[in-house]
Amino acid sequence: MKKYTLGLAVLATISLGLAGCQNNQKSASSSSIKTTIKSNQYNAQALQKRYDKICDQVISPLTAIRYSATMAELKKQTAKNQQILDDINLELQNNTSVPALTKALTQYVTISKAVLTDIANNNPDTFKTDSQKFSTLTNQIAQQYFQGELPKSMVTYTKMTASTSSSTSSSN
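^ Lipoprotein, sequence as received from the core. Prediction below:
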C-alpha cells in the first residue's frame, strides 16, 4: 500500500509539473513580441521635412552655445537631439522611395550625430572638422534636391552669426 501511495504521489507531482510547464509555454508564446517590418514611401517633400528636422537638431545646441549654455544643459540637449536623429535615421532606413535623396539624408544624419557628439564631449578639434562637413553637406543637399532652399534654422543661425561677427569687428 505504501508503494501504491508513493507511486500516486510521484505521478500526481509529475502531472502537476507538466501541466505547469504547458501553462508557462502558452503564456510565453502568447506574450511574445511580434516584429513587423515597416517600409515607408516618403516623397521629396516629406524628406525635405526630415532634412529640416535633422538640421534643427544641430542648430539648436549651436544657438545655445552662442547664448552661453552650460555644459550640463548642452549634454542634456544633445542627448535628446541624438535620439531624435536616431528616430529619423530609422525612418530613412525603411524608406523605399527617392533612394538618392534618402542616402544623402542618411549621411546627413551621420555627420549631424558627429557634431552633436563633439559638442557633448567638448571636443573643439573634431568639432571644427565635423561642423564644416555638416555645413557643406547642408548646402549640397539643398542645391541638389531642394532648389537651394536651406532649412530655416540654418538661415537664421547664419544671419545671427554674421551679425554677431560684424558687430564684433566693427567695435574693434
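The chain has a mean pLDDT of 84.
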